[in-house]
Amino acid sequence: MPVITVTQINKYIGSVLKSDRNLQGIMVKGEISNFTLHWKSGHMYFTLKDRESAIKCVMFASAASRLKFAPEDGMAVICSGSISVYERDGAYQLYVNDILPEGAGAANVALEQLKKKLAKEGIFDTAHKRPMPSFPRKIGVVTSLSGAAVRDVINVLTRRYPLCEVYAVDALVQGEGAPDSVCRGILKAEAAGCDIVIVGRGGGSSEDLSAFNTEKVAYAVYNCKVPVISAVGHETDISVTDLAADLRAPTPSAAAELAAPDISSLYEKIGILEHRMQRSALAVLDKSADRFIAMNSRLTAQSPENRLKLSGERLNSLEKRIDSAISHYMERLGSQLAANIGRLESLSPLKVLSRGYSLVYRDEKLLNTSEGLSVGETVDIRFGNGSAKAEITFVRNEVENNG
């Protein structure tokens, strides 16, 4: 038996495996583990296993670039490819041409993976959601101008809020170039000075709506400097654009209603505000009038003229009180004087004289005794009514009997 080399035996085994039709173009089901993506070459290396066995797998970059999702450890998949030998290591492995997620479609898996990625990066965070301006002056609409979506938006805004300008930007909404076209449309609407941007289209299949489930559009919506309303026409599924936008509407018409207020309700609010303003103005005027009256009263009370008037009135009152007090005082003094006069008159010598008595004076000195008088001496006599001079012709001295 001839001696062969390791390389020869590996090549032989490889040729045997390649010639076996049962090992070519096969589909193998299992769970991915030990997944590795070679960043430089783009090749994928992983192990496909079930409960009892495992097989090594490789997927070259040319095939890997066509995948719509990113394989992960623990993912149940169906791999299509062929069994061959890696001659350097003498190990057989499955050379994978395509991978299909088991159960869900590849597109759904890719979409869920994209949502998880963007959520992790904060694109969907509610903290980044911006409120809609109350009274937008310019509303941008990024959609196909040949579709019904733009007409629906214009009709609604014309009816509800004719005060704003509608800035329509034509964009592809399906097909290979749709994501880039939508992104350019958002930038154009933003540069045009729009206050709000509506992005979307009418209804369609999941394939038709795929442009709004791309990372490019999600980042364009997230990075837009003005609020964005997603108006992708579908009710059941939530698109990536819906999650990234500041507000989601089920249809373009609904987006127009969310973007602008109803002018009829504004007129109603204006009427209410006018009524409230009138009431407030009247209340302010009434209050101001009351304050004016009160301040005028205070000013009048503090004015020099009023103070002079009050002082004059007080002076008149004081004068009357003084006059009254003086009158009372004089009356009291008159009464006291009359009483004193009465008492003095009752004690006056003249009163005694009026009863028949007289007073004798010598040299203006009242005499109360006859002692010292001499016969022939002249004295003055005072009567109750009148007076006279008399000459002493007789003197009799009587000694007072004290015993």
What is shown here, in short?
The chain is an alpha/beta fold. The protein has helices at residues 6-19, 61-64, 106-120, 148-160, 178-191, 215-223, 240-244, 252-259, 263-302, 304-347, 349-354, and strands at residues 26-37, 44-49, 54-59, 76-86, 91-101, 138-143, 165-170, 196-201, 228-232, 247-248, 359-362, 365-367, 378-382, 387-391. The protein is built from eleven helices and 14 strands.
Give the DSSP E fraction (strand runs of 2 or more residues): 15-25%
Structural class determined from secondary elements: alpha/beta
Shape: rod-shaped
**Low-pLDDT runs:** none
Number of strands: 14
Mean pLDDT metric: 86
In helices, the fraction of residues equals 40-55%
- Measured between the Cα atoms of the first and last residue, the distance is 210 Å
Strand order of the largest sheet: 1-2-3-5-4
What is the rounded Rg? 66 Å
The helix/strand order is: HEEEHEEHEHEHEHEHEHHHHEEEE
Total helices: the number is 11
Question: What's the main sheet like?
Answer: 5 strands, mixed, barrel
